[in-house]
Amino acid sequence: MTLLEGSIGVEDLVLLEPLEEESMLKNLQLRYENKEIYTYIGNVLVSVNPYQQLPIYGPEFIAKYQECTFYELKPHIYALANVAYQSLKFRDRDQCILITGESGAGKTEASKLVMSYVAAVCGKGEEVNSVKEQLLQSNPVLEAFGNAKTIRNNNSSRFGKYMDIEFDFKGSPLGGVITNYLLEKSRVVKQLKGERNFHIFYQLLAGADAQLLTALKLERDTGGYAYLNREVSRVDGMDDASNFKSVQSAMTVIGFSEEEIRWVLEVTALVLKLGNVKLSDEFQANGIPASGISDTRGVREIGELMGLDSKELERALCSRTMATAKEKVVTALNIVQAQYARDALAKNIYSRLFNWIVNRINESIKVGTGEKKKVMGVLDIYGFEILEDNSFEQFVINYCNEKLQQVFIELTLKEEQEEYTREGIPWKKVDYFDNGIICNLIEHNQRGILAMLDEECLRPGVVSDSTFLAKLNQLFSKHSHYESKVTQNAQRQYDHTMGLSCFRICHYAGKVTYNVNSFIDKNNDLLFRDLSQAMWKAKHPLLRSLFPEGDPKQASLKRPPTAGAQFKSSVAILMKNLYSKNPNYIRCIKPNEHQQRGQFSRELVATQARYLGLLENVRVRRAGYAFRQGYRPFLERYRLLSRSTWPRWNGGDREGVEKILGELSACTSEEVTFGKTKIFIKSPKTLFYLEEQRRLRIQQLATLIQKIYRGWRCRTHYQQMRKSQILISSWFRGTMQKKRYGKMKASALLIQAFVRGWKARKDYRKYFRSGAALTLSSFIYKSLAQKFLLGLKNNLPSTSILDKKWPAAPYKCFTTANQELQRLYHQWKCKKFRDQLSPKQVEVLREKLCASELFKGKKAAYPPSVPVPFRGDYIGLRGNPKLQKLTGREEGPVLMAETVRKVNRSNGKTSSRILLLTKGHVILTDSKKTQAKTVIGLESVAGVSVTSFQDGLFCLHLSEISSVGSKGDFLLVSEHVVELLTKMYRAVLDTTQRQLPITVAEQFSVKFKESNVTVKVTQGSGGNGNGKLSCKKKGSHGLEVTV
């Protein structure tokens, strides 16, 4: 399907006319209501969250988009992922995919779809599959520890994630690196109404078994934890217990050891336990407010779980040590300060645990430094946010989005300019909004807002959010993108929405008002040194490693970097990374606030479109030429518009395109420009004009085709009718003649019948008396036979094959017939019995039949073996994998496995061996070592000798040409000799298509190495032949065996 034909609305907003916000929203809504959730802006993908599973994913669609170019099929996230992967693989260009949008817009699902597509189309192999599985399994682990239910989204990512997936030169994944940004750690201690804490807390309490909960000193009820929102403990469509098992499985796949998983869960439990530490008001002797632990049980359990001194932890929570160069001063904390310290500790522990998990995943999926690799980055980060109350978190998030918008504008214009240069088209400067002035306002090293915030945090004296705001008002009073109550008053402006503790920045996506309350605290992000040292003293390996600054040897009075400085540094590294790669953009949009399928809120989508700068994106794309296409596909699509190029064109592609456009009046030189390999069209109206002309031309050609087709169909119909009329006439005449001939033939036969009847009656009257006796005797015999058969029918015996009763013949003349009928009836009963048997039972009877043919009347051991079923396995082969390996997979099933005794060739003594019979070999192995000693191919078995007594002695005669046969024959003793030789006989017949000679005799010759030995078997005094077997050497050529 092409870009315009058969599409719903406009598939590429670059071609939207008129280019207004209203028309863009109307187009997005039209496509969304028809379940077309993807739309292009050039090579940018706009994705509207459908809040339902659509049948547009899976292996079938992956294969379809893998084989097509970007615009060849409908807009789809697979198309963008395919372009990125193909460019990485074949053009050797590092890629990055930037996924942006607000919470609930589907960013996480989009990143999963991109990774699943890349995993499906890249190489195969055991090692590659292992790497792919590790990369994919990192998602559920990070979601459990970094996602939470919010008002807007049941599975909202509360951190930014950038993953570099690294590939080899063949395009197969080698590993990756994950970078996380700004985890919302304040959620650990406080959630808004209707929201939950991070998923892992609920998954742990719902999915852990009773033994694990007891070990972690937890209870299953979520209502017993102060850090968990008691109003919302479950989420519709989310099974916390099942997800907990999935997280444990994913951590195992990634490479976490059982011990590491236990450590992570113990630290997670520690965070929950900290929230239940109850603090109370106390006063020191001098009347100064202090604090204490009202219930020491929680602190004691934390100490037992982490290997902490509970007194040490209580002291760290309720007091603070101020260190100077000369002395240390211990200050008691009031209850508000102690609660702040407790919550700060919980937030720091969880934040550092999350960073440790990310680093541990990176250790498992990292690539060796020596390998040359290509990189595809996937960025899943918060979109632009404007809330009712915007604080420090929204400030840094919007700063990051300003930087991403700057990257988008610069790289998009750079890409446009490079394409124009390649095609030999002059580049004209494009006017666009440069948000560099906003980025500079925030990030300038000396005069930026972040620099001022850090300076205020580090300044000695009284520091507060108000002093920080006053410094901003003084510094940016005349900045065009900065506003506050002070600057508005100076300009004699009145705005009741601007608070006294607020300032406003004019971002590219709109004006955002920030409340400076808690800016200083959130930027400082301080943790008292007493708490760090207490955590470092824990015996728990993971918790101790999370607080290296607690080590007294590494104690430093240097202030740690602020949260703003760390985030600014991370964004700078991210921008440098993005500039080094070819970008691909996915803009995610949330259609409604209620997560309902089919609902499209124009106001909400319009707000997000402004945040994401969609119209700005379209204007940049249309700054030069709105549409461009290679000469070959353009000629193939529009060649029917010119009589010179339709229906066949033998010239060059560019000449054909020039011929087509030269004959169309609307395609002027101002609207169309010819590049080296592409044609560029400036206005979408020109493209729509071409599409309309093509549609009209197709209607004309369709009418012509219909006219020709109708004429051909009428002619064909007439010719068929004419042929049918001729055929019907000929058949009718033939049928009439056949009927006439039939009547004539019937009349002749009737006359013949009358004549023959007359002659017969005449002869009958003449010869009746002479033939009367013969006729009467024949009639009487037939009557007797009929009576005999009817009587036999009513007196048939039962259908049991063991019932041999049969009625006697009433007359001697029926004796032979009666015996034949008895035989036939018995055969019928046997056949009916056989038809009821299963294939396994038939096989057992065939083995029993073969044993009967071989040994019935020949060997005394045969009659006792008849009622005993053949088992085949007498050593428990299924429970012995070592013996199973001896046979090999290609050998098929083992036909016989039992313990036999091998008669020694030199002294006549016997030793125990395990005999395995397969379809191709006889394997003799030591019963203790379970190693194959002798493997005899069935083709090497020349014959078998066995005695007629009830013993189990038999001899395997081997052909001399075989390697095993050169050592001599084998004299063995088996307790199931009839079954063994029967199965061996059938196996040799199936394998070599020859019958195995089995000789029953009391004396036979056995070849031992170079000489032949005559074995003579005699029956002992017991007389039955089934007693203990003894062998005695009689000279060098004789062996006497007594059974």
UniProtKB/TrEMBL annotation:
Q: Which GO terms describe its biological process?
A: actin filament organization; actin filament-based movement; endocytosis; sensory perception of sound
Q: Which GO terms describe its cellular component?
A: brush border; cytoplasm; microvillus; myosin complex; plasma membrane
Ranges for the region named Disordered are 1022-1043
Q: Which UniProt keywords apply?
A: Actin-binding, ATP-binding, Calmodulin-binding, Motor protein, Myosin, Nucleotide-binding, Phosphoprotein, Repeat
Gene3D superfamilies linked to this entry: 1.10.10.820, 1.20.5.190, 1.20.58.530, 6.20.240.20, Kinesin motor domain, Myosin VI head, motor domain, U50 subdomain
Q: Which InterPro entries match?
A: IQ_motif_EF-hand-BS, Kinesin_motor_dom_sf, Myosin_head_motor_dom-like, Myosin_TH1, MYSc_Myo1, P-loop_NTPase
Q: Which residues form the TH1 domain?
A: 859-1043
Identify the domain of life.
Answer: Eukaryota
* One Pfam assignment: IQ
Q: Domain Myosin motor spans what residues?
A: 8-695
- What ranges does the record give for the region Actin-binding, renumbered to this chain? 571-593
Membrane-traversing stretches: none
User: What GO MF annotations does this protein's record show?
Assistant: actin filament binding; ATP binding; calmodulin binding; microfilament motor activity
Where, by residue number, does ATP bind? 101-108
Protein role? Involved in directing the movement of organelles along actin filaments.
Q: Which PANTHER family match?
A: MYOSIN, UNCONVENTIONAL MYOSIN-IA
Q: What family does this belong to?
A: Belongs to the TRAFAC class myosin-kinesin ATPase superfamily. Myosin family.
Q: What is this protein called?
A: Unconventional myosin-Ia
